[in-house]
Specification:
With 309 residues, this protein is α+β, with helices and mostly antiparallel strands. The protein is 28% helix and 27% strand. The chain has a five-stranded antiparallel β-sheet. A four-stranded mixed β-sheet has the order 1-2-5-3. Strands 15-18-17-16 form a four-stranded antiparallel β-sheet. The chain is globular and about 55 Å long. The mean pLDDT is 94.
Length: 309
């Protein structure tokens, strides 16, 4: 990637916003991973569309990262261009338009708090969701009985062929996945519009406080990737891992949280290899005890060419 002939072209377009050999762990919620060969920071949906289009046109491999939750980056880093998404424009609802539009780099929990505090219901379930709007749309984030797919009105995308807008029905949503995450649709998320309805702001604030308290009481603090595994049908991944006696188990400075066994925590200077060993241990133990194959909810990004144990 460092010697890719198109990098000079991108540097001419974006100037000093492209940095090289950037430690990427600081841009993730888990604080784990090696360096990226090149990083481009964008601050608007139009810049994101331009960057993605140029990369496709110049055959430059790239990944878009927002808040960096739900991902584990290899200790060997990322050989692709990383586009850091800081596009944060929000169009708040009006009495004549009960929906909110947010660019894909907007914090999803902050957006949910903002519209709920203003007296609009529809995203209160998302007040504790980590990550960005783009990440939520990509992975169909959900919590407390709600999810992204059922809240979306429309999603703006850019593809190698140009821009388009799609409804949730066209995005192939299923539990914690989408056509985007599965790779069935080659596109970058620019922004999304969510349906809302008027509600009593005091009741919504009380609900937000309740959900925030529930999250604090059931999920661990500290640096993690969020939920490690998808919940199997009619089961909970955390319960299965706990039943295998793995709560609190450690490899190096990575641990399976003693608070919630589906959260793997970075306790300081943790390697991706340590986390992978915990993933393999949990999968093996659950498969042996319950004959259930746990599926990752997080994504592995970067150079995994070496055996990581």
């Amino acid at each position: 990637m460092k010697n890719h002939p198109a990098l000079a072209h991108l540097s001419a377009l974006f100037g000093d916003r492209i940095e090289y050999d950037v430690p990427i762990a600081r841009n993730t919620s888990a604080r784990i991973g090696g360096s990226a060969d090149a990083v481009l920071t964008i601050t608007s949906a139009s810049e994101l569309a331009e960057a993605a289009s140029q990369c496709w046109a110049q055959d430059v491999p790239f990944k878009v990262i927002g808040a960096g939750s739900n991902i584990l980056i290899s200790d060997r880093g990322i050989r692709e261009l990383v586009i850091l998404n800081k596009a944060k424009r929000v169009e708040m609802p009006t009495p004549n338009n009960l929906s909110v539009y947010a660019e894909s780099g907007v914090s999803f929990s902050r957006l949910a708090n903002q519209v709920s505090s203003a007296g609009y219901d529809g995203l209160v379930w998302a007040v504790t969701i980590p990550g960005t709007v783009g990440g939520a749309v990509y992975g169909n984030a959900g919590a407390f009985g709600g999810d992204t797919a059922t809240s979306i009105v429309e999603v703006d995308l850019v593809t190698p062929q140009g821009g388009l807008s799609l409804t949730a029905e066209k995005l192939g949503y299923d539990y914690r996945t989408s056509a985007l995450k599965r790779g069935d649709l080659r596109a970058v998320i620019l922004g999304a519009r969510f349906a809302l309805k008027s509600a009593d702001s005091d009741l919504l604030k009380a609900k937000m406080e309740e959900l925030t308290t529930r999250r604090k009481n059931t999920q661990p603090p500290g640096a993690s990737m969020g939920s490690m595994f998808k919940n199997p049908p009619n089961e909970f991944a955390g319960r299965l891992i706990e039943a295998c006696g793995l709560k609190g188990y450690r490899v190096g400075n990575a641990s399976i949280s003693p608070v919630h066994a589906n959260f793997f925590v970075n306790d300081g200077d943790t390697s991706a290899k340590d986390v992978i060993q915990l993933i393999q241990l949990a999968r093996s133990a659950v498969a042996e005890k319950f004959n259930i194959n746990l599926q990752l909810e997080i994504e592995l990004l970067g150079d995994w060419s070496e055996n990581v144990g």
